[in-house]
Amino acid sequence: MTIYICIEAVLLVLLFKKKPHHIGYSLISIGLLLISAFRAESVGTDVVNYIIEYNLHGIETWKESFTNSEYTFAIYCKFLNVLGLKERGFLIATAILFALLLMIALHVNHCDKILTFSLFYFAGLYLQSFCIMRQSLAIVTALISYSSLEKNYSIQMPYNKGRFQRFPIGFVIGMIIAIGFHPTAIVLFALPVMMLFYGQKRCRKPSVFLRDGILCMSAALIILPVLYPFILQHSKEKYQVLYGGSYVTGPFGNWKSGILLVTLYLIFYIAYYNNWKKLTEKENIIVGSVIMLAFACSSLSIINSTLGRTNLFFEGLMVLMLGKLLSHRYARIKSINFYVILVFAAFFILYLMRDSIVVVPYKIWQ
Q1: Residues in Cβ contact with 306 at an 8 Å cutoff, skipping those fewer than 6 apart
Q2: Is residue 154 within a helix (H) or strand (E), and if so which, with residue range?
Q3: Residue 130 burial class via C-beta count within 10 angstroms: exposed 0-12, middle 13-18, buried 19 and up
Q4: Greatest CA span in the chain, whole angstroms?
Q5: Which residues cross the membrane (predicted)?
Q6: Chain-centre distance for alpha carbon 179
Q7: Beta pairing partners, 161
Q8: Is 234 exposed, middle or buried (0-12, 13-18, 19+ CB in 10 A)?
Q9: Which of 12, 14, 151, 182 could disulfide-pair with 138, CB 3.0 to 4.6 Å?
């Protein structure tokens, strides 16, 4: 746990240091890459299962890889096997791939790199890559594809309506790749729908997005406990086991983690409410749409821990949005933005103490 806290401390120093910190950002990125690449197999709950999956993909034919439901990951594993990489080579290659994709995501979205990278780390999303590798790769791939969505969205004057001036082909291609890593990435197709929906609305105040998100969350909490078992009964056995296991604890068996997630989203909303007037109308619609979807999907986390992992995609988007929101005076002690960052830093400590993905204690591969 000490190594993770030390990295957090260094990031906080870099965040509130007023001088440029390009070298610090690079060193931290390389350090985390090495920590991920050379961790022991016990660091991360699912590492052993991924190694087994890697070997299984290695003996598949190329045709089987392309027709696999997780086709991107299957092709990736098959390719590494053809190169002759063993289990440790797979973990090192995946650590490098994740770090590169994250770096690209921050670049193409024009982020304040140290701020956004720090929030990504504080939210636990970097450490998630030590465990849920497929979904972590899907998240950073989706964040790259998001840049196309934002680029092609515009506000039409004089009616002040939001629309896509061109079809976001880059977003669609990126999402196809992301879905191939983890099928749950499909939930992000709801974002352009919401952007079009709110683009037609006259009132786009923060309270509107929060209200709609809470209403959708409440509706899901009422409907899903009844509908979810029926959906499971008519799903493939694989998904019944994967997404139905923790449901036996009751319709709200994961409520503690779900409430913690809702609290995190409330902090996100506070940052939005405090800064929304500094945003362009386009930015306001996008951030508000993410807020609405984040609250709506938090219901899934309350109901079922595995199903709730869909929230990780919205957490990734939340980090990108916070990078835009908090860039205004976040280093000033009297600013609310300053304390929002400290709350995320405190959340990271709670995240480590909970250790739901078993990354504590950290051990080096031997």
Answers
A1: 242, 243, 245, 246
A2: strand 153-156
A3: buried
A4: 64
A5: 23-40, 89-108, 120-149, 169-197, 209-232, 252-273, 285-304, 336-353
A6: 14
A7: 156
A8: exposed
A9: 182
- pLDDT of res. 240: 63
The residue type of 335 is S
Q: List beta partners, residue 364.
A: 39
Q: Distance (Å, rounded) from C-alpha 211 to C-alpha 198?
A: 13
Task: Quote the CA–CA distance of 235 and 229 in Å, as a whole number.
Answer: 10
Q: How far apart are CA 272 and CA 81, in angstroms?
A: 45
> Tokens in use for 293?
């979807």
Residues 270, 213, 345: CA angle, nearest 5 degrees: 35
- Of 317, 242, 244, 298, residue with least CA distance to 70: 242
Encode pLDDT of 135-157 as tens digits. Answer: 999 999 999 999 999 999 999 88
The whole-number average pLDDT for the span 50-78 is 95
Residue 75, pLDDT above cutoff 50 = yes
Q: Is the peptide bond before 206 cis (omega within 30 degrees of 0)?
A: no
Token pair, residue 34, equals 């090495």
Per-residue pLDDT for 246 more than 60?
no
- State what percent of residues in the chain have pLDDT above 70: 92
The tens digit of pLDDT for each residue in 313-323 reads 999 999 999 98
| Length reported for the chain | 366
Q: What is the pLDDT, as a whole number, of residue 362? A: 93
Distance in angstroms (rounded) separating the CA atoms of residues 305 and 303: 7
Give one DSSP letter per residue of 297-362, joined into a string.
Answer: HHHHHHH-TTGGGGHHHHHHHHHHHHHHHTTTTTT-TTSHHHHHHHHHHHHHHHHHHH-TT---S-
Per-residue pLDDT, 249: 44
What are the backbone dihedrals phi and psi of residue 290, each rounded to the nearest 5 degrees, phi first? -65, -40
Q: Using only the alpha carbons of the chain, give its radius of gyration.
A: 20
